[in-house]
Write a structure and sequence with these properties.
This is Polyketide cyclase / dehydrase and lipid transport. With 130 residues, this protein is an alpha+beta fold. The protein contains 3 helices and 5 strands; from the N terminus they run βααββββα. It has a single domain, classed as START domain (Alpha-D-Glucose-1,6-Bisphosphate, Chain A, domain 4), CATH 3.30.530.20.
Length: 130
């Protein structure tokens, strides 16, 4: 089992086809993971992306887009080993990467799901915003 083994998920109330272009945006990768060197292993379209990771970590990472109900569950997986001479402990690195994954998920939620009234299907806004 890798030293860093993260699995996280968040629901986005938009279809995978709306999330996929954001996940495929290479400029966003630099923003989300500025210190990692990513090599695409598999571009999966509306199902997400898989990478090999190098730099301060060596391993694999994936964003998997799963259609669920009227939206998408964004799954994040990172399985890696810290590079020799790592600045952070494995526990601190795991925490750092978990927080980064949550920031990515909430960025996408804010961008793609903003204005939707809680409990309403995608595309509907609250009465206060009308």
């Amino acid at each position: 089992m890798p030293t860093i083994d993260i699995s996280d998920e968040v629901f986005l109330a938009v279809a995978p086809a709306a999330v996929a272009p954001c996940v495929a945006d290479r400029a966003a990768w630099r923003r989300w993971w500025p210190d990692l060197v990513l090599r695409v292993d598999e571009e999966r379209g509306v199902k997400g992306v898989r990478w090999s990771v190098s730099g301060p970590l060596t391993g694999s990472m994936e964003l998997w887009l799963e259609p669920v109900l009227d939206g998408t569950v964004l799954h994040y997986f990172l399985r890696a080993e810290p590079a020799a001479g790592a600045r952070r402990s494995a526990a601190a690195e795991t925490r750092h990467r978990r927080l980064a994954a949550r920031a990515l998920a909430f960025e996408l939620r804010d961008r793609l799901d903003s204005g939707r009234a809680p409990g309403c299907p995608p595309g509907l806004v609250s009465n206060e915003e009308r």
